[in-house]
């Protein structure tokens, strides 16, 4: 069987690949290809719905970062809410797709109503032997317009951050939160990480980025609907200050997060937006 459902988690298979999605946050917490885990999940992460997962692919909605305006937690409520399983959409020899949905009544009780808008989010996860596609649609089901930012906060598992580079960002403008540098042009063809990095690259485009390890491309990240890309690694000190970050884990992860940040999405009543990433 290529789709297995349990109370808290959906597991899907396609050929020699598998993925696991928690209903909590509709967070993809595992993507394996030929037995190799492609996503980093901290071994200290709570997977019980008490805290967003520190790893996998948390969904950021309706805002990136802190949001004092509505009193929501950092990165919004989608990753803190339990989504509904909306069923299997495709299940054949080459592809398995499952869907999840979240509407205002499903938002975590302590956060419900803080964002005063009516919406429907649908998230689909499609697994093939070679790829994982995650697609988020947001529909305005209310009577007034709303604005949001969103990301798919993918934690890639890497063998050694010292040997890892990101390609595809040369010439793009970025903001670096660590030292408050804004609108810097990326000069490097291959961006390495040797200290804490927290950058938003703008208008990266559909070609997205590639993760290079030891000189080889180990993941292609392409996108549709998400213009921007966050590159994040907390490095030693910041990671040590996070209660759910595994010791030394900064060495084995790299967040490359497609997002719509620089130009927030404005949805009129009845309108729908779709943002998608393909990892292969
Ligand atoms: C990144 C942000 O997307 O997420 C960082 O750019 C942030 O600033 C990181 O630290 C992790 O956020 P959180 O809320 O999961 O600790």
UniProtKB/TrEMBL annotation:
Q: Could you say which residues bind substrate here?
A: 54, 74, 79
Instruction: Give a Pfam family name.
Output: Aldose_epim
GO MF term list:
carbohydrate binding; glucose-6-phosphate 1-epimerase activity
Under SUPFAM superfamilies, the record lists: Galactose mutarotase-like
Q: Which residues form the active site?
A: 153, 257
Alphabetic keyword roster: Isomerase
Q: Which GO terms describe its biological process?
A: carbohydrate metabolic process
- Can you name a GO cellular component term? cytoplasm
Q: From the Swiss-Prot or TrEMBL record, give the protein name.
A: Glucose-6-phosphate 1-epimerase
**Organism of this sequence:** Rhizoclosmatium globosum
Species lineage: Eukaryota, Fungi, Fungi incertae sedis, Chytridiomycota, Chytridiomycota incertae sedis
